[in-house]
Amino acid sequence: xxxxxxxxxxxxxxxxxxxxxxxxxxxxxxxxxxxxxxxxxxxxxxxxxxxxxxxxxxxxxxxxxxxxxxxxxxxxxxxxxxxxxxxxxxxxxxxxxxxxxxxxxxxxxxx
Amino acid sequence: xxxxxxxxxxxxxxxxxxxxxxxxxxxxxxxxxxxxxxxxxxxxxxxxxxxxxxxxxxxxxxxxxxxxxxxxxxxxxxxxxxxxxxxxxxxxxxxxxxxxxxxxxxxxxxxxxxxxxxxxxxxxxxxxxxxxxxxxxxxxxxxxxxxxxxxxxxxxxxxxxxxxxxxxxxxxxxxxxxxxxxxxxxxxxxxxxxxxxxxxxxxxxxxxxxxxxxxxxxxxxxxxxxxxxxxxxxxxxxxxxxxxxxxxxxxxxxxxxxxxxxxxxxxxxxxxxxxxxxxxxxxxxxxxxxxxxxxxxxxxxxxxxxxxxxx
Lengths: 111, 311
Description:
The complex is a heterodimer.
Chain A: H1 3-15, H2 18-26, E1 31-32, H3 33-43, H4 49-61, E2 65-70, E3 77-82, H5 84-107
Antiparallel strand pairs in A: 1-3, 2-3
Chain B: H1 3-12, H2 20-40, H3 45-56, H4 59-67, H5 76-107, H6 112-142, H7 167-188, H8 208-212, H9 215-235, H10 240-262, H11 269-275, H12 281-310
């Protein structure tokens, strides 16, 4: 396996799941698919459109997001918003992330 | 029809109808947003559309994401069961088929070359069927609607010793092996036989009427359906509808067998004559079938009652 590919695989493994947390946090304020994709990229969470759009539906199905069609503008858009369950999960996941971060710091002797 | 229309169509085609309108609306808005963004950045509209759709990738992959469908034939949760069952089937059925075919050919006084060639070709065909149907079975289980197969919790108790823990799986595997072997032998009887007619063609042990009317295929279908319910019991939850359905399949098998035996439709009269058996043989077959059916039915009822009480 070429070195680039190896690196890409490891990075992908490490980042898997962070997009869910990022979505749950960003969608505390309602937003729609493409704008969310843009925002995630700006914040540094690289995700493909073809991963994000189905993911939003899955999270909605799991009750972590709610959605509403906004037809005020000329182009109707589906706005997603983090539900109460989603907020609770985001808190749990954030806490876990912090613990991991602390664990890495102490591992590297920074404590 | 624009490129986007074709893309959206291709993605929606693979989705359940009730999800389509909502996903179509959202997908079209998302594509339009992405195209507008690129056009605002100075890209030519057609080039922007191509770029956006290229980025979205294969519409079937996108549809699989929306429908939560696996992009593999048999996933990690089932793969080990699949390979194990395949190994057990191949290891038990193939030698049996080879031995039976070789034995019958040898009894026909065929030369050694024919014995080996026939045994080999029958074994090869059986191997292909086992491989194909086992794969189909597991691919169907993998796609069973509303199920997400979890990898079964493994405990050291599942290690080869003691064998009692593996009894349930072994039972299932043996039942599968028996069904496959039984069906194979039934289907082979018209072509492989100890008796030959005046032209040297084999006389089948079972009545040709079964083949002419297709009853034999119906019977095998019933046996396979009953086996399917055993799989449902092992991989899914045992519930009352499945218990009833399995019971019905078993009862249908038995009734069909008894009806056939009662009308002397099981054995081939020509075979009985050629083998020089007495006419009483049909009566013995009838008694045997009735006894086996009663045993099977009693077993099915007890088993179902036990499972229902547990579930």
